[in-house]
Amino acid sequence: MSLKTVLILLGLALATIFALVCVLLTRERTPRTCQHLPLEQEDVEDGQSLVFADLTPEEMSQVVRYLQGHLGVPLVDASRAKPSDNCIASVDLQVPAKAEVLRFLDAGGARPPREALAVLYFGNQAEPNISEYVVGPLPTPAYHRDVTVQRYGGKVPYHRRPVTGREYMDINALIQMELKKALRFLIACCESDGTDLVILTTAPRGFKSGDRVTWFVLFHNVAGTGYYLSPVGLEVLVDHGDLDISRWQLLQIFYNGRYFASTRDLEQEFVSGALEVVRLKQPQAESVLGSMKPRRLPGSLGPLQFEPQGPRYSIRNNLITFQGWSITFGMNPNTGPRLFDIRYRGERIVYELSLQEALALYGSNCPGGMSTRYLDGSFGIGRFAYELLRGLDCPYTATYVDRHYLAETDTPKTNQNSLCIFEHDSALPLRRHFSDSQSFYYGGLRKNTLVIRTISTLINYDYIWDFMFHSSGAMEVRVHATGYISSSFFHGQGTDYGNRVGPHTLGTMHLHHIHYKVDLDVDGQLNSLETQDMEYEFVKDPWSTQNTIERPYLRRKRLEKEDEAAFPLNVPMPRYLSFVSPNLNKWQHPRSYRIQIISFAGKHLPTNSSMERSVSWGRYQLAVTRRKEEEPTSTSIYNQNDPWTPTVTFADFINNETITNEDLVAWITVGFLHVPHAEDIPNTVTVGNGVGFFLRPYNYFNEDPSVDSSDSVYFSSDQDVGACGANPLACLSSAATCAPHLPPFHFGGFLNL
C-alpha cells in the first residue's frame, strides 16, 4: 500500500472520529424530551363527581330555550334589556341536596336529577320582581318551579337586582350628556370635553331600601394603563331607579370639596370666577401614574418548574386526584371557586369548601370613596375570573381548564384557561431531621403541594384564590390581593383617610374581608367542636416540695351551643379548635381536624350601622352552625343594592342550637386592612397581602400520613448516598436530563371582553 493511500485512509478515519465526537457533543447539549410515566390509578368511583359538575354550554342553552318557550312572558336578551323588560339574568348549576348526594355517593342510591338555577328579572310586570326557578331535568328540561319564596321567604324586590352592563351603558350616556353642559369647566380643569373621561361605580346605591342612587367617580382615561389612579376631582350622583330611562337624572355634582345641584350650576360658578379649579394636564401614556409597561428590556430567564416524568396528578372531568387526595372542583359565576367531596385516602374530610363573599369597604373625604362598600359576589367573582397567563399567573407547565358561565346574555360565555392545577415545590422541607448523636442519619421529605388556582379581576383589584393540598393530610386556603388601588382626588384633609400617592391622588384606606363556607365531615357527618388552649398552674416541685414550678397544662372544652362557637372578629380565639368525631384513633383520642386561621382583618362595620346586617358574617372570624339545606350561603347577590333590608342575614343562622354530634359547618372570615402607600404604585404587590386558613389533621391518623410518601429521603452515615434506588434525590441527575415539552405561548384573555 502506497504512502499516499495510507494518508488518505488516515484522513478519512480522523474525519469520521471528528464527526462522531460532534454528534455526541450535540446530543449532550440537546437533552431528550421528558417522558411521562403512567400514574398509579386512584381508587375513585368513575363519574360520581359529575353530580357536582358545572353546567356545560349546551345545558345552559337548553335552559334558556326552555324558559323562552314555557314562561308565557316575553323575554329580552339581558345584554339589550331595559329595566322595564323581562330577561334571564343568569343560569347556574342547582347543587342537589346533601342527603340525596350522599345516598348516591355512599349508599348506592339513585343519581340526583341534574338541574339548573335560573335567575330572572321581571321588569315588564305589574309588580316588577326578581324570581328564581329550578329547571330540570338536564340535558332535556321538562319542568320548572319557582323557588324564590322557598329560598328567601317572599318575592325579591326588583330594586335589589345587580346593575347590568346595559344599565351602566345607559348611565354613562346620561353622564356624558350632562357633562356637555359644563364644557368650559371641563376644558379648564381636565383638558377634556368629557368624552375621554371614564366613570367608576360605587355601591351600595343610596341610604334606604328602594333607593337606586349611585355616586360615580370620574377619571382620566389613558389607553394601556389603569385609570383608577387618575381622578379628576369630579363625582356625580345619579338616580337610576325609575324603570323609564328617560326619567333618570343627576341629583348632585361634587368637585374638589364642594357640592352643586347640577352641571349648569357648576359651569356658572366656574364662569363667574367663584370656583377654585385645579388645572390638570391631560396625562400622557409614557408618563402616566400607574403605568405597568416595563422600564427595562427582558433579561435572563428565571427558574422554570417542570415535571421531568410528567404531572403526578390526574384530571378527569371535574375530578382531580393526587397522592391520596381526590377533589371535585367547580366555579359559581357569582361567588367563585367551589370544591366538593374532598377526600384523603378515600375518606371524606370536607363535603363543601366554597368562597362566599369578598367585601371591600373604603374611607375618603370624597362622596364616592366614603360611601363604597363593594360586595364582589354581586359583580361576579367567578364570572370575572379571566384567562390565566401561562408562566406568570401559574407555572408554565400547569394544567389549564376552561370555565363556562351564562350571565347577562342568552348565550353562554367561556373564560378559557381560567383555572389552573399544578404541583408546587415550595423549596422547603415538609419535615426533616439531621441526627448528630448516637447514630448518624438524615431523614426528610420535600414540601410538595397540589395547588388549584383561579384569579378574579373585580374592577381594579385582582384576587388570587388558592386551594392547596399537602401530603400530611392538611388543606390550605389562601387569598392574595393585587391589582390597582382605588383612589380619590386629593384635597383638604385627605391624609386622614389614606396616603398621597400622586400629585392629585389619594390612596384611600380600605379593608378586605373574605368569607368562606367549610362543611367538614370528619370521619362521618356527625361532629362536635372542641377547643384546647394552655394555662399555667403553680405546683410544689414533687421531688423536694421546697420550690414552686409554673407548669403549663392543657385545657380542653367541648362547645355545646352555636352561641359559644361564634368567635368575634379580632378577639383572641382558642389556639386549637377542632371538628371532632365520636370515633377514636389508635391512641384513644377523637379523630379530629383543626381549623387554624391566618388573618389580619380590619374592624368590622359597627353593628349600629343601618347596613351592617347585610355583612353580619363579618362579625365573626369563625362561627360554627348546624348545617341546614335552607342556609346554603352566608349572603346574597341582592344584599349589595339593598343592604338595609338584606335578602340573606347570616347573623340569623346563629340561634343557639346544639352543636354536639351534629352535621356542622364552619364559616370563616379572613382579611386585612390596607392603607395604600407609595409602593402600591403602579400595583399592590402580593407580598404581605395574603391571608387564609388551614385544615390540619389532629389525631385523625395514628401518625403523620406523609411517612408513606415515595418522595421520602433517608440515609445513614454508612450508606452510599449516591445510590439511586435508596435515595430519590440521587436519581435527579439522570431523570432530569431532559427538556420539558413547553406548548407555544398563547393568550386569548381579551376575546370575551
UniProtKB/TrEMBL annotation:
<dbReference type="GO" id="GO:0005886">
    <property type="term" value="C:plasma membrane"/>
</dbReference>
<dbReference type="InterPro" id="IPR015802">
    <property type="entry name" value="Cu_amine_oxidase_N3"/>
</dbReference>
<dbReference type="GO" id="GO:0008131">
    <property type="term" value="F:primary methylamine oxidase activity"/>
</dbReference>
<dbReference type="InterPro" id="IPR016182">
    <property type="entry name" value="Cu_amine_oxidase_N-reg"/>
</dbReference>
<protein>
    <recommendedName>
        <fullName>Amine oxidase</fullName>
        <ecNumber>1.4.3.-</ecNumber>
    </recommendedName>
</protein>
<feature type="domain" description="Copper amine oxidase N2-terminal">
    <location>
        <begin position="75"/>
        <end position="143"/>
    </location>
</feature>
<dbReference type="InterPro" id="IPR000269">
    <property type="entry name" value="Cu_amine_oxidase"/>
</dbReference>
<feature type="domain" description="Copper amine oxidase catalytic">
    <location>
        <begin position="305"/>
        <end position="706"/>
    </location>
</feature>
<feature type="active site" description="Proton acceptor">
    <location>
        <position position="376"/>
    </location>
</feature>
<keyword id="KW-0560">Oxidoreductase</keyword>
<keyword id="KW-0479">Metal-binding</keyword>
<dbReference type="Pfam" id="PF01179">
    <property type="entry name" value="Cu_amine_oxid"/>
</dbReference>
<dbReference type="Pfam" id="PF02727">
    <property type="entry name" value="Cu_amine_oxidN2"/>
</dbReference>
<dbReference type="InterPro" id="IPR049947">
    <property type="entry name" value="Cu_Am_Ox_Cu-bd"/>
</dbReference>
<keyword id="KW-0186">Copper</keyword>
<dbReference type="InterPro" id="IPR036460">
    <property type="entry name" value="Cu_amine_oxidase_C_sf"/>
</dbReference>
<dbReference type="InterPro" id="IPR015800">
    <property type="entry name" value="Cu_amine_oxidase_N2"/>
</dbReference>
<dbReference type="InterPro" id="IPR049948">
    <property type="entry name" value="Cu_Am_ox_TPQ-bd"/>
</dbReference>
<feature type="active site" description="Schiff-base intermediate with substrate; via topaquinone">
    <location>
        <position position="461"/>
    </location>
</feature>
<feature type="domain" description="Copper amine oxidase N3-terminal">
    <location>
        <begin position="161"/>
        <end position="257"/>
    </location>
</feature>
<dbReference type="GO" id="GO:0009308">
    <property type="term" value="P:amine metabolic process"/>
</dbReference>
<keyword id="KW-0801">TPQ</keyword>
<dbReference type="InterPro" id="IPR015798">
    <property type="entry name" value="Cu_amine_oxidase_C"/>
</dbReference>
<dbReference type="GO" id="GO:0048038">
    <property type="term" value="F:quinone binding"/>
</dbReference>
<comment type="similarity">
    <text>Belongs to the copper/topaquinone oxidase family.</text>
</comment>
<dbReference type="Pfam" id="PF02728">
    <property type="entry name" value="Cu_amine_oxidN3"/>
</dbReference>
<dbReference type="GO" id="GO:0005507">
    <property type="term" value="F:copper ion binding"/>
</dbReference>
<feature type="modified residue" description="2',4',5'-topaquinone">
    <location>
        <position position="461"/>
    </location>
</feature>
